[in-house]
Every structure is written in C-alpha cells, then in structure tokens.
C-alpha cells in the first residue's frame, strides 16, 4: 500500500516537472506522450491492485431473514415479524434488542417480556429458529433503513 502511495505521488510530481524536450512540440508528439504516460499509469495501477479476497457472496440462511415462514432469532430484522400476528412491534422489538440466543427457549428469559408477549411467542414457537449470528445481518436487526 505504501508503494502504491509513493508511486502515485512520484507520478503526480513527474507530470509537473520541466521536460527536456523543446518547447515547440507538435500535437502528434504531445498525444503520444500523453498516451504513453496514461498507459504506463494504467498498467501500474492494475499491477498494484491486491488479489481479490474470498468474499462471502451468498448467505446460506438468507431464507430465515424474513423470506420464509421460519425466522432466525439471531439475524432477522424487526420487520420480519410483521407477518406474525401479535409479534410486531412490542415482542419483536424486545427479541431483536436482546440476544444472541443459543436456543429458541432463551427468548422467554428476556427481561420485561409480558405474559401476553410470551403467549404469542409460545403460539408461534415452531416458526423460529436459531442460527449462528452473522455480523452482516446482526448490525441491521433493529433498523435496516427501510421505511414506508
């Protein structure tokens, strides 16, 4: 990275350095010099790029984030609970603001959970699952920036 920064600074400084060529250049010479400079800069830029990282392209549990009947308690957004009657906003808000959960039964240990909320959770307990928390989704559990 330091080498790339130094090379960029040197090439920028070289662009403003006085040239040893005569001042009366033809338009053709100026064009070829410009092409040679940018061609060399492009080649250097391509060589300076780091090797592509092995990024996680697909999340295998994406269906549990709200796209199926089963909801992942550790990664799903608060809006995933809209389709379950009685869950949104109170019980859903408490679920996403606590955790991570090791099992579905851990949900009943949330402080401040009313008996009515526990009953709704118990009624829909088969619709919940617990997957390993993924940082890409945990960060957006409370507010994913989607508004009506």
From TrEMBL:
First and last residue of the signal peptide: 1-15
Protein name, per record: Photosystem II 12 kDa extrinsic protein
UniProt keyword Thylakoid, yes or no: yes
Places the protein is found: Membrane
Keyword Membrane: yes
Domain of life the protein comes from: Eukaryota
Family according to the record: Belongs to the PsbU family.
Its membrane topology: Peripheral membrane protein
Keywords: Membrane, Signal, Thylakoid
GO cellular component, one term: membrane
Primary location group: membrane
Gene3D superfamilies: Photosystem II 12 kDa extrinsic protein (1.10.150.320)
Pfam families per the UniProt record, alphabetical: PsbU
Stored SUPFAM superfamilies: PsbU/PolX domain-like
